[in-house]
Amino acid sequence: MNTSGNVSKTFNSRQILMVFTGNVPSSTAEIYRQINKLIKSGEITRIERNSYALGKIDVSPYSFDYSEIAESVSSIIETNYTDVKFTIFETRQFNEFMNLQIGKNTIIVSVEAGLENYIFQELSKTYPGKVLLKPDIKTLWTYLQEDTIIIEKLPTEAPVSAVKKWMTVPEKFLVDLIADKILKTLITQSQLEYIFEGYLNHYQIDIKKMLRYARRRTCEDALKLQIKKYKEK
After folding, report:
1. Do 52 and 93 lie in a common domain?
2. If we measure between CA atoms, which residue out of 107, 100, 120, 105 comes closest to residue 190?
3. Which tens digit of pLDDT belongs to each residue from 49-60?
4. Which domain holds residue 211?
5. What are the distances in angstroms from CA 117 to CA 15, 107, 152, 172, 183?
6. Which of 82, 92, 117, 202 could pair with 105 as two cysteines, CB 3.0-4.6 Å apart?
7. Is 114 a member of any domain?
8. H-helix or E-strand containing 60?
């Protein structure tokens, strides 16, 4: 069964298993295993966290509705630094596929080398006390609040969006999830498999581009391990 367009009806994992097997395992791990098997076979498609549709839905290009503050940050940067290369990522972007939702949203602004201080000063005018410049882990947890804005260096050769130049694409943020010390601190590492499975199942992902970027960030082996876990399920 191949479905395209809008999904008319969705089901949670327990409903799906009752339909296909007539039984719901008591073990969460076994529920996850059986659901993933049905996804792999094309009998169901994961729409979002604990929401599935019958049949296989063609993967789609990645899109995300950024928050008002993220849009404002992009506007401030583009207005004052017209040629700067930067990307914006919100940790709530991971909520689509995480079992444990993120409590506080954090906005990570990756800026080309040499301009981090200027962007920090500019954003601090509008968001005093909410902007951190390349914080260490101790500083992060000391000042972390809802919609904290973190300024980091943009790695060279980072994948970019063809839709909005500052939108962070999965080929970048999935690698950053492995390599970036801030993301590794903010996101529970037990959620990595759920996140990778969700994005690789649901969106068009250029694996070669992602691996090139991982090589640049010296985490290619770790990325390959996540992809291998996904393929073996």
Report:
1. no
2. 100
3. 677 878 766 678
4. 68-232
5. 52, 17, 10, 23, 21
6. 92
7. yes
8. none
Among candidate residues 57, 81, 101, the one where a domain is terminated: 57
Q: Are residues 31 and 121 in the same domain?
A: no
37 and 86 in one domain? Answer: no
Q: Are 97 and 187 in contact (CB under 8 A)?
A: no
Segment 8-33, tens digit of pLDDT? 467 888 888 988 888 888 888 888 88
Dihedral Cα 230, 226, 95, 28, nearest 10 deg: 50
> Checking DSSP bridges between strand 106-111 and strand 86-90, what pairing results, if any?
antiparallel
> pLDDT digit string (tens) for 171-217?
999 999 999 999 999 998 888 888 998 898 888 888 889 999 999 99
Residue 210 to residue 199: CA distance in whole angstroms: 13
